Amino acid sequence: MIKSMTGFGRCEILKSSRKFTVELKGVNHRYLDVNVRMPKKLNFFETSIRTLLKKYANRGKIDIFITYEDTSENQVSLKYNASLAAEYLKYLKQMEKEFGLENDIRVSALSRYPEVITMEEQCEDEDELWNGLKEALEGAFRQFVETRTTEGENLKKDILEKLEDMEQMVAYIEEHSPGIVMEYREKLETKVRELLADTQIEESRIAAEVVIFADKICTDEEVVRLKSHISHMKVTLGEKEGIGRKLDFIAQEMNREANTILSKANDLEVSNCAIGLKTEIEKVREQIQNIE
Q: What's the first-to-final CA gap in the chain, in angstroms?
């Protein structure tokens, strides 16, 4: 089942007092390009997040947005540095004696001295934190894959329809190419008779000229290869995933054959058909750019 590189996923998980929200969006890209935005508190999980994502996506430019809330009351704690407070008090008393000043220091004043009382963020259990985050990530990643798969099926349907149209154009070119040679022979004989009047026409010369012309406009090889490429692309569309680059290569080969047919075309209808063929191939190539 093919997947598009365009997709969106979102999941919100509430675990006790912890709330994890994960959103991600993806667009087409040649390789897997991941950008993760999250609170600093979760930064040490970035490698794990990228590793987990690789189970769900192979290509695309993917932006991941993570928010985290902890509503518990014990997120921070106060720390009292008794030795530092004693040090401050010792020097204050020393200053009192040296300068004959009144020591008006109070507990409230001493507590405001730098680093006497500090606020510290409580350490959290990394395993619990990761388990909650992972659940939210997997929920968002699964939804992301679902949207990519749905879009991928739409792309597959559209490409198959275009391939059917291309097969009809190739069949038209294959059917009308022999007629172009016969028409050329008739025109050549008529022109030679007009020029030579009653003089005997050498059939061998006419035949040789027709053979040279037929060789110049012959598209048999290109038609056979185009049929093969179309068939190959249909088979590839039935494969599981990671087929984007393969499809792009097939489309390039198809375009090469169509260009050759157009350069050999010596008939207006065949030429127009070849142009239509190139147009459809280009549309297919544009669609393939979105396939993972």
A: 11
Tens-place pLDDT, residues 179-205:
665 665 566 556 655 555 555 556 666
In angstroms, the CA 197 to CA 137 distance is 87
Query: 0.85 cut: is pTM over it?
Result: no
pLDDT digit string, tens, across residues 224-268 = 899 999 999 999 998 877 788 899 999 999 999 999 888 777 777
Considering only CA atoms, which of 208, 215, 202, 198 is closest in space to residue 264? 215
For residue 117, what are its two tokens?
């009382």
